[in-house]
Amino acid sequence: MNLNDKYNEKMILEEFRKREIRQYITIFLMLLVYPAIILISAIYESHLNKIPKIILYGIILALLAPVVYIYYNWRCPRCGSFLGKRFLPKFCNICGAKLR
Ligand SMILES: [Zn+2]
Fold first, then answer.
1. What is the dihedral of CA 26, 32, 38, 39, to 10 degrees?
2. In this structure, is residue 80 part of a structural domain?
């Protein structure tokens, strides 16, 4: 391993750390928002058509945005492959980059 590889490895580790922090924040927000949405749905029960449109669009956005964000964020910094459901991955399954 030459100096350049070592530098790249450090960059990958730093970038992955940032992505991981963003991942945890997103999951934390989902844990707050999803139960709130379930609660709103329970309150309105079969009267979902009575929910104001703006709130309905907000709910749809709150459900979809984190999923889309995770899809773009949770990737290997080196090869860009999606890391899937793996929790605390040590290496990328595709390119073998060390992630922690
Ligand atoms: Zn990779």
1. -160
2. no
